[in-house]
Write a structure and sequence with these properties.
It is built from four helices and no strands. It is mainly alpha-helical and about 210 residues long.
Length: about 210
Amino acid sequence: LTGIGVLVGLLLLSNTYTFYIEKQGMAQFDVAAERANKIRLEAKLKRLAFELYAGEKILILAGYDRDDESKRTWQERNTKALTDYKAAADELLGKLKDPTDIDNLKKSQALVTQFVANTADVNTLIAAGKYHEAQLYSRTKNRELVDDNNKIIDAMLDGQEAKLKAADVESAAAEARTLWLILLSAIGSLAVAAVVRSEEHTSELQS
């Protein structure tokens, strides 16, 4: 085995491992991007659920003020918030694989479904001009649902962020392994080059 053969072998080993690490890094990037998208959707669900509660409060105030235009506006906004929540939840459900995350999402959906049912009762009270009763009903029935939903979504967010950080650590470790291999290959190449030069020198002396 000549020095040049060893050098070629080292280079092939380095290139193969670097290619493997590059492919692994791309896969980890895809996973990280997917987790970031899940975090975005979960944060959206939390925001929309709170918007429904805030919108309900504004509808009650609009009833107090007999502001029919604001009532129509916020009824439309609440309808859109609910539609957006359902769409985001369906999209997220198609991306989740962890049974705990799936279970938590279904709990969130159940809470929002109950919230909507309670809101129908609130709207009935508003229509009857019973604004104080509507306010009490909203606070008693729906505030707890919103708080519970926030806790569930926060647990999902914490889980996704922890997995994202773990992926970052693994990516950094893979990069470090690649750098070390390149360094070792470079040192090996220099050593082989010295051997090759020594063989050439010896050959020249013998001739």
